[in-house]
Write a sequence for this structure.
């Protein structure tokens, strides 16, 4: 099994739509077993600082999408995921063992 992690920001968009929504829709249509979206509270990267305001307004909140799936399902999706994420974020992949 592989764990694919996509790191982006909440405000990232692709063709006028929120990137995480586009990615989740793509993963669902590709019959991936599941995905989890994680929101961070602070961070920074090559595209700048991610910040959350305590007043309830979130600006550039860091976000991660985790997928654990069979290699045979993940690998064919990588080129399209890379194209969607582009310079917005970072994609990592590593082997995992399910218990």
């Amino acid at each position: 099994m592989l764990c694919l992690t996509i790191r982006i920001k909440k405000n990232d968009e692709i063709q006028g739509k929120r990137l995480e929504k586009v990615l989740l829709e793509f993963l669902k249509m590709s019959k991936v077993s599941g995905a989890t979206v994680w929101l961070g509270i602070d961070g920074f990267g090559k595209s700048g600082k991610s910040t959350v305001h305590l007043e309830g307004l979130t600006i550039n909140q860091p976000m991660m999408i985790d997928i654990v799936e069979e290699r045979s399902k993940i690998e064919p999706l990588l080129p399209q995921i890379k194209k969607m994420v582009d310079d917005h974020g970072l994609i990592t992949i590593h082997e995992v063992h399910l218990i």
Remarks:
- The mean pLDDT is 88.
- The beta strands are 2-9, 13-14, 17-18, 36-39, 43-45, 48-52, 58-59, 62-69, 90-95.
- The first strand starts at residue 2 and ends at 9.
